[in-house]
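hey can u check if this looks right to u? its 387 residues, i copy pasted from the old doc so theres a chance i mangled smth
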Amino acid sequence: MHILLNAVAATAGGGLTYLRNVVPHLSAASGVALTALIPPDIEDPDHRSNVTYIKFEVQGGTAMRFWREQKEIPKLIAQTGAEILISAGNFAVRHSPIPQILLSRNSLYTSQDFYEDLLRRRHYSIWLDTKLKGIFAKRSIRWAQVTVAPSAAFAQELENYSGHEIRAVHHGFDQRQFFNSASPLSRSTQFQLDAAQDCFRILLVSHYNYYRNFETLFRGLALAKKRAPGKKFRLFLTCKLVSTENPGSYRTDEAAGLVHSLGIQEDVVELGAVPHDQLPNLYRACHAYATAAYAESFAHPLVEAMSCGLPIIASGIAVHREICQGAAIFFDRFVPEEFAQALLQVAQSQDLAATLSSQALRRSCDFSWAKHARDLLALASSLLDVA
């Protein structure tokens, strides 16, 4: 089987994580040849003889990328002799000459909360950009033979959005690679952690964006401090609340101002971006992982945190409940009082924290990139059989 993997959109974040993990597993399968279209500035994820990389450069925005893919990928299919096209960037090729699997993982296109949040913030440019991308993504679902989502909850969202059946194939996690590649924390990060040894340490791994809903965490943290004046808390962020130090065009002014108005400057620690190989030690240095996100399709940091035995305190959206199951306490995504209550429950009960930790370790073992690749290959084989 010769697969053409269109990973041109894998420039950062979840897309890059996906590319680096799935290529080695797809290429390791018996009888598979893989051609991968990747951005020009990304290193080749795997070097097996059956993998060919094509650097596919696109200048301009999403529309330019979309139209260039429509024009060029059918030509590349003919040149490479590929039999299956896997489109990994939310957008499909309209007239693919071979069966096509679309991987759709951007939950913002279907999130009414996100659109309302953008309007409230008067960030009309992101609102319009997301709407336009959502139109392309919705049409792409019609063009592909099969669309795959990384969780059953998000698959249901896409079905409601598009009116088409969506397959759920969980994204994976490689425990051995995650821990074997672990590096010591930087001096600055270790200094911040050492300064909080007498605190209950909470972690959120994310650059600043709107849909991770930092503000609910900030308000809930301030409430928890008032309700338990004898308890010290530190919320560690792997970002800076400075607009120029985050990818994209999300504005941090409101969040930074909220930290100051709540008087929690000392309780919110802005570490900045932490290299991925340092994350295992960062997770292990904290007592709990927290997220108030109102839109997700899978959430890799949750699985990483669970693999380190961290109790999870998460907004009760369907994706979080599916991924975490019994490893988390859930709260309403827009109710800081509920987050504060959940935080205090975990911080004040060693038994509860230990139970959640045990459940987290068990649940993290359910995710595997090898299984994800096997499921994709089985789906590809079934399409070839029909063709």
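The chain has a mean pLDDT of 93.
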